[in-house]
# Entry
Amino acid sequence: TLTIHQQILGAKKNGQKLLAILLDPDKIVWENLDYLLLKINQSPATHIFVGGSIVQSTILEDLITQLKQKTNLPVIIFPGDPSQISPQADAILFLSLLSGRNPDYLIEYQVQAAPILKKTKLEVISTGYILIESGNETAVARVSKTEPLNRENFDLALATAQAGEMLGNKLIYLEAGSGAKKAVPLEMISLIAQNIEIPVIVGGGIVDLHGIKKAYKAGADLVVIGTAFENDSHFFDS
Ligand code: 1GP
# Structure
């Protein structure tokens, strides 16, 4: 069977667009979980991302258990720090925050996480994580104490993505931040998607189905929806 990374590459090759629902364990209303899972199963989502800037590990574990029992979608950890590792997930985005200059998020947390990950069977998917200015301070910027890239500096964003690819990352994640006022600029997505080979994930501040479609059209291979679905479990109904 194919790894999740191979499936993403295959989808890109076939022009099939992917969609991840991001669940932050801290924001789950547990009484409504079964209904939420039903809505996820009815949605066009192809992946579930689980994580957040600050999450208690037991809650992460509980959520992943439920997801593995009640959906068939691959569950991928999208960690805010090395405590967010659960062997029950299918894979983890092994992020390096390339837009920032905080060594903790560039390499220190990865060093801490490596021996823990070695003891699990999790598929580790190295991902160049690039935070783009979004018109408001987002949790990623606050918690990582890094500056996002200027949303008008396309050259810098492209060079950062290309450096991420040359470093051997398997994916590039263009992130406006959860609850971003402005999503990643479409022209920036398109410039980067055309000038790297690896798949491009785009998320942050996408609040309607039209926004998803536009990101795909610009060249996103996988779009992440967090807040919009969190606020409205009928988001994907139409
Ligand atoms: C955040 O990209 C994700 O890491 C999703 O952002 O919550 O704004 O959809 P939203």
About this structure: The first strand starts at residue 18 and ends at 23.
